[in-house]
Design brief:
This protein is of the alpha/beta class. It folds into 3 domains: 64 residues, OB fold (Dihydrolipoamide Acetyltransferase, E2P); 161 residues, Rossmann fold (3-Layer(aba) Sandwich), CATH 3.40.50.300; 61 residues, Orthogonal Bundle (Ribonucleotide Reductase Protein R1, domain 1), CATH 1.10.40. The protein is built from 9 helices and 15 strands. A 5-stranded mixed β-barrel has the order 1-2-3-5-4.
């Protein structure tokens, strides 16, 4: 960096992106003030959680630089890349007993988190629906055996025990709340940050973007000391992993990873090679240190998908 660039950077203000509305961002300053900022140039690069340098402009503020990120949680398909948030400690993947969730989408979200070294937590909502919940909880046994944190919730009932357990898990961390539409993300946010959706509606009004919809990503402080943060994200039905190298896929699946060292060939695809440690560990129902047939099918389907020639 030359002297002129250092002088310019020294005159810029520090901030945190707390809401993303396309080309508009809401930036929070160190003293807690919030203002609308725009990206420099046509391409919008910032995401919620980014630490930025900005300067005052005629339309409030302009983001001049995005500071180096610890991580970036995103999904990518053949058409586009969708970034959720940056500089995360955790991803809370919220699913529900009803409607039935997709095992493939859950696996994809976990793989994306593992690839960025972000701690994932699985929360299963609607424990008040006894039979559907018991089926879903039983199905999640393999994930508990993989040492993922799996938390039972009944957000509709707004139980204090759920709130306290969530606060304990989230304390002192920045956590992205992720999940399909209908899982209960808005209920969870309002349980931990009362009035959060009212706050978001006010932001939307300030940006002339109408009523709040789940197409935006928003940061909320859980505590007055601003040490614990929740990030609400849009619901999704698909979760592309085109940014994942198929050769690295097994390393991002906790039940497959320990068995890779037992493969005869260092470049084993775990699909057809003789002496494959992964294939040898596949059982119809996974026990401790085994791989379920369902999880292996997710792996083989994903490997085939990620091995297709890219169209972009």
């Amino acid at each position: 960096m030359n002297i002129l660039a250092k002088e310019l950077e020294g005159r810029l203000n520090h901030g945190l992106i707390v809401a993303n509305y396309g080309h508009h961002f809401l930036v929070e300053t160190p003293d807690g003030k919030r203002l609308i900022c725009h990206s420099r140039g046509k391409k919008s690069q910032g995401v919620v959680g980014d630490r930025v340098l900005w300067q005052t402009s005629t339309d409030e503020g302009t983001i001049e630089k995005i500071e180096e990120r610890r991580n970036l949680f995103y999904r990518q398909d053949e058409i586009r890349t969708k970034s959720f948030a940056a500089n995360l400690d955790q991803v809370l993947i919220l699913i529900a007993a009803v409607p039935e969730f997709s095992s493939s989408q859950l696996a994809r979200a976990l793989i994306a988190a593992e690839a960025q070294h972000i701690t994932p937590i699985i929360a299963l909502n609607k424990s008040d629906l006894v039979e559907p919940f018991e089926r879903a909880w039983s199905w999640l046994l393999s994930y508990r055996q993989m040492h993922y944190g799996v938390l039972p919730l009944s957000l509709k009932q707004s139980r204090d025990v759920d709130r306290l357990e969530l606060l304990k898990l989230l304390h002192g961390k920045t956590t992205l709340v992720l999940g399909p539409s209908g899982a209960g993300k808005s209920t969870l946010i309002n349980l931990l940050v009362p009035g959060a959706l009212v706050q978001t509606g006010e932001i939307s009004k300030a940006l002339n973007s109408g009523k709040h919809t789940t197409t935006s990503t928003t940061w909320y402080w859980v505590d007055a000391d601003k040490t614990t943060a929740l990030i609400d994200s849009p619901g999704f039905q698909e979760f592309g992993l085109n940014h994942i190298d198929p050769a690295q896929l097994a390393a991002y699946m906790r039940d497959l990873k320990p068995h890779v060292a037992n493969c005869k060939f260092y470049n084993c695809s775990h699909l057809h090679e003789p002496g494959c440690g992964v294939m040898a560990a596949v059982k119809s129902e996974a026990g401790q240190n085994q791989i379920s047939a369902n999880r292996y099918k997710i792996y083989s389907d994903l490997y085939a998908e990620l091995s297709q020639p890219k169209k972009y």
